[in-house]
Amino acid sequence: MVEAFAVASGKGGTGKTTSTMALGMALAERYDVTVVDADTGMANLLFHAGLSDADTTLHDVLVEGGAPVSAATYDRFGMSVVPCGTSLAAFEAADPDRLRDVVAELAGDTDVLLLDSPATLNSKSAVLPIVLADRVVVVLNPTVPAISDGLKVQEYALSYGSGIAGTVFNRVRGDVGDVRSKAERYFEGPTLATVPESDSVQAARSAGVPLLAHAPESPAAEAFRTAAGRLSPNDGDSGDVAERFRTAVIPDPP
Ligand SMILES: Nc1ncnc2c1ncn2[C@@H]1O[C@H](COP(=O)(O)OP(=O)(O)OP(=O)(O)O)[C@@H](O)[C@H]1O
Ligand SMILES: [Mg+2]
């Protein structure tokens, strides 16, 4: 079985990478999980996963005649983690079209694929995870710009046949019931969780460790476990998912 999720938001800094690692760790209690830093231009998952010294990353796989994806796959925190490097030159040398083959290969060997997606929708590599995922987890902050950008992601995903798994409200301070119930009218899928603004999240990031490893009992970690519990990954046929990624024609961005 496999289901591919894109973790996306449109807006930068909403908590996509934090959410990818937290949802991945929570799902890894029941499933074989692979997380991929599909934000190849502004990669930062490596810093959240203690992989800032990784020798081989996705950038090395995405060049012609590059490394096999197995060389860029690391066992961390009960998951398979595929980090991406941060060099601009390596990003420029990487061919985003190759990411389809990489994800197709990974899909054959895992139950849940989580694609940490770029902010914005302004390039082929940026839209790829949203277009190819089975479902998109939309990470929002309770602010008008974040919700507005999240809606653009939803519109784009739906127009290419990707589903919406639901929304995660992150960095929530106080009661946002009103904002949340308004947003629920516009977003498909449930609110998966409301994650509080939390010093534990910052501390985990500074330590280079995912939140669920650094502060597993924190309210924020608990909220992410709740979100993961609501995802119920589908047991899609691995071959079908791999074929979809391999043969997809990535549209020009909007
Ligand atoms: N619930 C939270 N409480 C406090 N800080 C948070 C929370 N969620 C995320 N942060 C912090 O916000 C910053 C951005 O988070 P993260 O890197 O996960 O966002 P992102 O959406 O992946 O960003 P980018 O668009 O740059 O890839 C990090 O420093 C992270 O520690
Ligand atoms: Mg990120």
The name of the CATH superfamily reads: P-loop containing nucleotide triphosphate hydrolases
Gross morphology is: globular
CATH architecture: 3-Layer(aba) Sandwich
- Give the integer mean of the pLDDT values: 92
CA gyration radius, whole angstroms: 17 Å
Protein traits:
binds adenosine-5'-triphosphate, P-loop_NTPase, eight-stranded mixed beta sheet, ATP binding, alpha/beta, ParA/MinD_ATPase, binds magnesium ion, ATP hydrolysis activity, 254 residues, Rossmann fold, 8 strands
Overview of the molecule:
The longest helix has 16 residues, at 144-159. The chain has an 8-stranded mixed β-sheet with strand order 3-4-2-5-1-6-7-8, sandwiched between helices. The chain has one domain (3-246): P-loop containing nucleotide triphosphate hydrolases (Rossmann fold). 50% of the residues are buried. Helix content is 41%, strand content 18%. It is of the alpha/beta class and 254 residues long. The model has no long low-confidence stretch (mean pLDDT 92). It has helices spanning 16-27, 45-48, 58-61, 88-93, 98-107, 124-132, 144-159, 177-186, 199-207, 211-214, 219-229, 238-247; strands spanning 3-8, 33-37, 74-76, 79-82, 112-116, 135-140, 163-172, 191-196. The chain binds adenosine-5'-triphosphate and magnesium ion. Residues 16-17, 39, 44, 116 line the site of magnesium ion. Pfam families: CbiA (PF01656). GO terms for molecular function: ATP binding; ATP hydrolysis activity. Residues 6-210 form the CobQ/CobB/MinD/ParA nucleotide binding domain.
